[in-house]
Amino acid sequence: MPAVRRFLGSFEGRLTLVALVGLAVRVAFTLVARRDQDLGFSDASYYHLQGRLLANGRGFLEPFLALDEPPTEAPGGAHPPLYSLYFAFWSAFGLETPLQHRLASCLLGAAAVAVIGLATRRIAGDRAGLIAAAIAAIYGNLWINDVMLAAESLFALTVAWAIYATYTLWKDPTAWHAALFGVATASAALTRAEAIVYFPLILVPVVLTRRTLAMRRRIELIAVGGVVGAMLVSPWVLYNLSRFEEPTYLSVGSGYTLMLGNCDATYDFSKNSVGYWNPGCDEVGPPEGELDQSVLEVTYRERGLDYIEDHLTEFPVIVGVRILRVLDLFRPWENIGLNTLIERRGLVPGRIATTIYYALTALSLYGLWLLHRRRVMIWPFVAIFLVLCATMLVAFGLTRYRVPWDVAVVILAAVALDDIASAGRRRTGDPASSASERSRASRSASGCGPGIPARSERDQKYGAP
Predict the structure, then answer these.
(1) Domain ranges of the chain
(2) Phi first, then psi: what are they for 61, rounded to 5°?
(3) pTM summary value
């Protein structure tokens, strides 16, 4: 029992308890509100059914065709493979119903809570890590994705892991930590394709700005991270290049997304789907008899690009609306209604999550400023935001597409709340405050882990590497 008490009193023990709370929140909502909800014709159904096909040894097929009557086998690559593979693992053990897959996805959400806590601890210390985990445990814009069977459930976990790996590499630039970044970021890219740009956009600046290292060493670290990532991603890319008629790399979903976001209904400000998507954008339908998803991808992409070309003066405005919509800064209550009707995220959970999101966003701006003031690199968070905005050139303002930024907002808000708590303790003259703050600063500055040497008192204070 003393060992249990010591564990529960440690950071790891407390983080475990918070992650279990996060799991309980997700499981409770699933059992109460989503136990019998039909998946319909959706991304959720795609992942669920493809996972079952994989478990039955039928490979990466287009699930809606493979399970149709009569069944038709055609290669499926609308999404990267990792989320479907996760469901294939559980389906192989007979856990293959929508409810069972929802509960399996809740485990991913709980893991994301823990990794968000670890990433924040790496950046700002123990207390900030626990605050971030506590926010992630109850923040609706994270757990709603878990019970929806949305790939953003796994994406939140892998993005948090990539942030953890980024700051580990920044604080202790070794080949092992560069390889860790490669593994984490490749996992994110195999969940959602846009994460592939994290390699040049985050890895290169993080390493190149370590001016204490020789240029040759910096190039070696970049090469290690890039090669490890390529080794993990390339099998899927080569597999796709071998089975589709048109060149296909991570997925074939971007063309359909481009088409669904570019038509009269999504450019008309009198419509509630402006900056969103509308099924009317697909009124022509697929070419008769065409089953190859890569050929359909080219067709859909051309339709979307043709519409953009005919509306070039309107396109920049619509992209701006998409960015504002994905950030819930454009008609937010309408956005909640669309998410409820089309995505089935839930009206009340959506309203609560959006309200909390506004508070966290305000805190995150303060947290970003605090990190900059402490000389902690903020570029990874800026890069995540820029990638989200760039995605809106092709996609539309769907709330769940924001999940990498939601992860970043949780971490930055926790940094802010930790600082506010510290200021409050100092104002009240807490005698333990000074010792606690010195200890926390030392752990944060030394990287919160073994093998990372402590730095000077000045660098410990400001968090610089």
Answers:
(1) 2-278+293-442+456-462
(2) -100, 160
(3) 0.91
